[in-house]
Design brief:
Helix content: 25-40%
CATH superfamily: Hotdog Thioesterase
Number of strands: 7
Length: 170
């Protein structure tokens, strides 16, 4: 299976922030941002693997600057690292004040996807080739994140034994 450049999975989506998109602080709803994140990240995963993909986890979503109604929001995603069937997708969210032109990093996120074969089973994906300094830094540090993700997932799995499905109103 041939390796692919990170740029081959790049997705860019730019949108405006309207009054219906904001919370009581007049900043973009976090859930609205997460919806856009998952959409662009899943497109990057599918573009890289050329397979159906499922979101396996959202490792982190870090909010750095508020997103205002005077902003446009650019979501840029690409596959930054791969395992056997899994892909780590990096997403950066950049705001641009539409009046001043000032740009800021509003948030960053790392999501993980698994590629599926025709039987809905995990299937191998191509490796990635980083080119830019950003891509190289993310790629070099990904193995450690994968190790931590595996540990966190195991601990989370252990907790599921104690989580009930009882009706909360009973």
């Amino acid at each position: 299976m041939n390796a692919k450049y990170c740029r081959e999975s790049k997705v860019i989506r730019t949108t405006r922030v309207f009054p219906s998109d904001v919370n009581n602080h007049n900043t973009l709803f976090g859930g609205r941002l997460m919806n856009h994140l998952d959409q662009v990240a899943s497109t990057s995963a599918a573009r890289h693997s050329r397979r159906d993909c499922v979101t396996a986890s959202a490792d982190s979503i870090d909010f750095w600057n508020p997103i205002q109604t005077t902003d446009s929001v650019c979501f840029e995603s690409y596959v930054s690292w791969t395992g056997v069937s899994s892909m780590e997708v990096f997403v950066k969210i950049i705001t641009e004040d539409l009046k001043s032109g000032e740009r800021k990093i509003a948030a960053t996120a790392l999501l993980n996807f698994v590629a599926l074969d025709q039987h809905k089973k995990p299937t191998p994906v191509p490796k990635v080739i980083p080119e830019t300094e950003e891509e190289k830094r993310l790629n070099e540090s990904a193995a450690e994140r994968a190790r931590m993700r595996k540990e966190r997932k195991q601990k989370s799995r252990e907790l599921t034994v104690f989580i009930t499905t009882d009706h909360p109103w009973d």
